[in-house]
Amino acid sequence: FTFFKNYLYLKTATEFDLEINQLKNFFKQINMSGDWQTIELALVVAIEMYSHNLNKEALEFIENCCYDSINSSEDPLQLFKYGILLERNGKIKSSEKIIQKSLDISDNSYPYILNYLAYLWVDNNRNLDKAEKMLDFCYEQIPYQRFREGLKDLNVNNYDRAIKLLDMAQADANENLKFEINYLFFYKTDNL
């Protein structure tokens, strides 16, 4: 419960533009029991610093509080955020390594992380063939993401949003996904 209370405080404080020093001071007073929780809360503060273009300070903050923990983390989203901070500080090879670890752990299940790494390579004129394949894969995943989101909305009776997402998915879908969407529309509308 303490973690969620602290997380909620930090997230709310960032929404209301609490000063960075106040966020850092609050974080220093927190005693968390696990590495994952500590990293998660530290990243809230570091990403807020990053959003204010305090890139160097954000990276120093995260590395001063949790360098060993974050480098041994098995959480793909934590690693991705850390990779962004590294990249924004010109540590391109370290960033690539951390983001690739994030993708390996998640079995490439986050297309936006694939997309980020691909553009990182393109921006640095590296691994261009692999980057192109990754971007093609990400593009192919967009209809599936929209389909999943539309299905969730459909299941909670948010029909307007569901129809919009499913229509967008169908517009770019391959034949298999189009069949699935059409079947879903037929099945769901038949049971309404």
Give a concise summary.
The protein has 192 residues and is an all-alpha fold.
Mean pLDDT: 88
Radius of gyration, in angstroms, nearest whole number = 20 Å
Q: Strand tally, please? A: 0
State the helix count.
10
Query: How much helical structure, as a percent, in the residues?
Result: over 70%
Shape, principal axes of CA atoms: globular
How much of the sequence lies in strands comes to under 5%
Q: Please write the string of helix (H) and strand (E) elements.
A: HHHHHHHHHH
Largest sheet: none
Class by SSE composition:
mainly alpha
Low-confidence stretches: none
Report how far the terminal alpha carbons are from each other: 40 Å
What does this structure look like?
- With 192 residues, this protein is mainly alpha-helical.
- 82% of the residues lie in helices and 0% in strands.
- It contains 10 helices and no strands.
- It is globular.
- It starts with a helix and ends with a helix.
- The mean pLDDT is 88.
Architecture blueprint of SSEs:
Blueprint: H1 2-15, H2 20-29, H3 35-51, H4 55-71, H5 76-88, H6 92-106, H7 111-123, H8 128-155, H9 159-172, H10 175-190
Helix pairs in contact: 1-3, 2-3, 3-4, 3-5, 4-5, 5-6, 6-7, 7-8, 8-9
